[in-house]
Amino acid sequence: MVSVPQVLTILGLAATQVMATIDPSLAKTPQMGWNSWNNYACNVNETVILDVANAIVSSGLKDAGYHYVNIDDCWSVKAGRDNTTHRIIPDPAKFPEGINGTAAKVHALGLKLGIYSDAGTNTCAGYPGSYGYEQIDAESFSEWGIDYLKYDNCNNLGLQGNATVSSTRYKRMGDALKNVSRPIFYSLCSWGTDDVWDWGRSVGGQSWRMSGDISASWDSVVSITGQEVPIANISAPGGWNDMDMLEVGVKNSMTNTEYMSHFSIWAAMKAPLILGNDVTNMTSDIKKIIANKEVIAINQDPLGASVLQRWIKGNTQLFSGPLSNNSYVALFLNLGNSTATMSATWSDIYNSTTVNSKKSIPVRDLWEQKDLGNSKGKISVSVEAHGVRLLKLSGRA
Ligand SMILES: *[C@@H]1O[C@H](CO)[C@@H](O)[C@H](O)[C@H]1NC(C)=O
Ligand SMILES: *[C@@H]1O[C@H](CO)[C@@H](O)[C@H](O)[C@H]1NC(C)=O
Ligand SMILES: *[C@@H]1O[C@H](CO)[C@@H](O)[C@H](O)[C@H]1NC(C)=O
Ligand SMILES: *[C@@H]1O[C@H](CO)[C@@H](O)[C@H](O)[C@H]1NC(C)=O
Ligand SMILES: *[C@@H]1O[C@H](CO)[C@@H](O)[C@H](O)[C@H]1NC(C)=O
Ligand SMILES: *[C@@H]1O[C@H](CO)[C@@H](O)[C@H](O)[C@H]1NC(C)=O
Ligand SMILES: *[C@@H]1O[C@H](CO)[C@@H](O)[C@H](O)[C@H]1NC(C)=O
Ligand SMILES: *[C@@H]1O[C@H](CO)[C@@H](O)[C@H](O)[C@H]1NC(C)=O
Ligand SMILES: *[C@@H]1O[C@H](CO)[C@@H](O)[C@H](O)[C@H]1NC(C)=O
Ligand SMILES: *[C@@H]1O[C@H](CO)[C@@H](O)[C@H](O)[C@H]1NC(C)=O
Fold first, then answer.
1. For the whole model, what pTM was predicted?
2. Topology classification of domain 4-299
């Protein structure tokens, strides 16, 4: 396993300079959980959050690694802050026992609670934002028992346009979170603005959205994947490019094949795995996808290196990357509308011209959960339209 100082050295950063701004223990691997927005939008309340939290436990998703239950926008009193304390007020109709009451119940299930705010005057739905009130809000979140903050980018007073201006705005909350007693995961939702992947880590961010919002469609999955390709090498333990919430199982938006591709790409690119579907009422097909332990293990591999794109041939693309224990993962992606046969040599997969092209290496299909036997020098697979094959290779050539 690569230590945090080693990773920082690889990133060309002085360890001492950065150690103070991140709490690496919260982000050793990409975060996993659920967020309310995709399924409930503004219609969130304690009942919904507890129903979801209970379902995450009873369905086995907690055991599969999903630990954060994140409340998105619309949880507070829209009219404004408390005029005396200047604190944001949880909506008493939606959260009758306060956010701290909900947090206590979520924690009792062995899960963590996330909340949402905005690096601007108001959230995207028009509720109070935290700009100018960072320390007050960080203190509220800490007192309430919050474990995770998703921090959006709406109504930001135009304080963007270059990395200095954007990072200064996001650093205010990063500093405030470092100044409270509770460790709180800091998830920047800045839509890739001003190349956040270059400065997200330095403002205390543990993940940062690298694109605009995902929508529940295959085209959106393909578009975000393309945007991630050139910056995929930036993700590393301590900080991750966030490709946005999963749309797997959201409103029958894609075929099962497309959902599996979406999940595979997010897993192999080390994106946070934040579910968005109604986990209280899932089909067994959907549950099988999001709870596949071998695919999740690729995402949570301690080495924390994203797959990189090795080539594009027509509608097909090869991605691969290292795993711990000397293993490797290869992702064969077919964006075309008909089945394709894809072949990759060891030099393709291991991205080296000096490989032992005769070497025999055991290969496992992670979706079929089946050993395919040993391959020698290359792999050829048939890949469905809009599908993937996700293979683990136990060794290096
Ligand atoms: C909570 O929200 C759900 C989903 O929007 C809604 O059906 C339910 O009536 C709400 N419950 C309360 C107590 O507000
Ligand atoms: C704070 O005061 C303003 C002006 O009087 C009022 O409009 C607002 O509703 C008050 N906020 C709350 C949360 O009561
Ligand atoms: C939540 O905070 C309120 C106000 O400080 C307090 O009265 C209540 O006991 C707290 N609830 C829990 C479960 O801690
Ligand atoms: C960034 O933008 C701000 C405000 O527009 C400007 O004052 C500053 O000079 C810019 N910085 C850089 C490095 O371009
Ligand atoms: C840290 O928090 C304390 C209150 O707990 C506050 O007085 C202080 O100004 C904060 N420091 C910064 C740098 O915001
Ligand atoms: C990522 O790769 C690009 C070239 O594609 C390179 O310029 C950059 O330094 C790399 N970044 C890291 C963190 O390795
Ligand atoms: C559960 O989902 C099915 C469709 O998959 C739907 O027909 C049914 O109404 C849902 N049940 C509830 C309680 O939402
Ligand atoms: C493959 O390796 C070469 C150097 O051998 C490097 O320049 C290139 O960036 C690598 N490509 C990928 C996708 O890793
Ligand atoms: C690496 O191998 C060791 C020994 O077989 C095993 O205990 C460990 O779980 C493996 N780690 C991963 C991430 O597969
Ligand atoms: C697949 O079919 C869709 C719908 O007909 C079309 O829009 C798209 O361009 C096709 N994709 C490819 C890669 O041919």
1. 0.93
2. TIM Barrel (3.20.20)
